[in-house]
Amino acid sequence: ETGVTQTPRHLVMGMTNKKSLKCEQHLGHNAMYWYKQSAKKPLELMFVYSLEERVENNSVPSRFSPECPNSSHLFLHLHTLQPEDSALYLCASSQDVGQGNYGYTFGSGTRLTVV
Amino acid sequence: TQLLEQSPQFLSIQEGENLTVYCNSSSVFSSLQWYRQEPGEGPVLLVTVVTGGEVKKLKRLTFQFGDARKDSSLHITAAQPGDTGLYLCAGADVMISSGSARQLTFGSGTQLTVLP
Question: What is the 3-state secondary structure (H, E, C) of chain B?
């Protein structure tokens, strides 16, 4: 149990589907993140939330839509994805975004396959 | 976005051997973290180094932050099969949009396999 729980663990969706990824943390952290991990590429930061406010959006296509209803929950809504969006999507949390010296706690990820 | 290069990309060694993996950048980071990721799981934090020249030890793992805070190394002594995994370094730098909040930039990792 890492303290950050992601569901589902695996997801296969068609290009016309709409689905959502869920992330939940019970660590009392104030910052939450979505990362994309593709084969042979570094982790790519997608979105950052601090105290439920979006701090950063790294030029992510609009087919990915984040939602942070409170400091414990983070969602990633998906629609009309492309096959190249297939990847491991990781959620992480940290104490805050202020210093970067705090470790990130990652969930186990959602393995997404777009067909 | 600042880049972190890790080397080697792949490393396969026998149990009991020593190894060193490297994380290099042309940019300065306020701190640097090392993570280990196992198949089907998210990365797990091993250590954070903050001060230039800092050395931290975690059992058989020794982490060093370069004097100029641009590079780092991870040395494993007497490797064991349980050390197998993807080792990621990540540097903290400032988010452009906020000016104060810091994000982690990850390297592409070193895949270590320790054979029994």
Answer: CCCCEEECCEEEEECCCCEEEEEECCCCCCEEEEEEECCCCCCEEEEEECCCCCEEEECCEEEEECCCCCEEEEEECCCCHHHCEEEEEEEEEECCCCCCCEEEEECCCEEEEEEC
The pLDDT assigned to B107 comes to 93
Per residue in A24-81, pLDDT tens?
999 999 899 999 999 878 899 999 998 888 887 778 999 999 999 998 999 999 999 9
Distance CA A36, CA B87 (A): 17
Closest residue on chain A to B104 (Cα): A100
Residue of A15, A31, A32 lying closest to A80 (CA atoms) = A15
Shortest Cα distance, chain A CAs vs residue B83, angstroms: 19
Nearest-Cα residue of chain B relative to residue A41 = B108
CB-CB contact of B56 with B49 (8 Å): yes
b/e burial code for range A64-76 (CB count within 10 A of at least 16 → b): bebebeebbebbb
Question: Rounded mean pLDDT of B89-95?
Answer: 82
Average pLDDT over residues B70-77: 96
> How many inter-chain contacts (A to B, CB under 8 Å) are there?
81
Cross-chain residue pair B101–A55, CB shorter than 8 Å = yes
